Amino acid sequence: MVSSGASFAFVCTIALDGKSVSVKVSNPYPQETYCTVNCHFKVSGGMASVSCTKTVPASAVDFVFCQRAIDEPYGKLDSGNEECVKSL
Q1: For the chain, give me the number of helices (H) and strands (E)?
Q2: For position 55, which CATH number holds?
Q3: pTM of the shown model
Q4: Is the CB of residue 8 less than 8 Å from the CB of residue 57?
Q5: How far apart are CA 7 and CA 67, in angstroms?
Q6: CA diameter of the chain
Q7: How many domains does the chain divide into?
Q8: Are 83 and 35 in contact (CB under 8 A)?
Q9: 20: which DSSP letter?
Q10: What is the DSSP string of 71-84?
Q11: 26-43 confidence digits (pLDDT tens)
């Protein structure tokens, strides 16, 4: 999933084996900022979510925000959202 808010963008990518997810974020501003990204996946028996919160460096492009792994494969990406605080 690729999404872009006001000026921020994030990507949730499932690995080829289906058992891990990588979340990348871009920050268009010349100051670091604090973001939370949520990616929601359909898995057998329901939903699985990946939630990451941390500081994104100034002017970062495709910054590896977090990586998560589970025992069973992630299913299809269902939805996602991001919330970033623009530095003053």
Answers
A1: 0, 7
A2: 2.60.40
A3: 0.81
A4: no
A5: 23
A6: 43
A7: 1
A8: yes
A9: E
A10: SS----EEEEEEEE
A11: 998 899 999 999 999 988
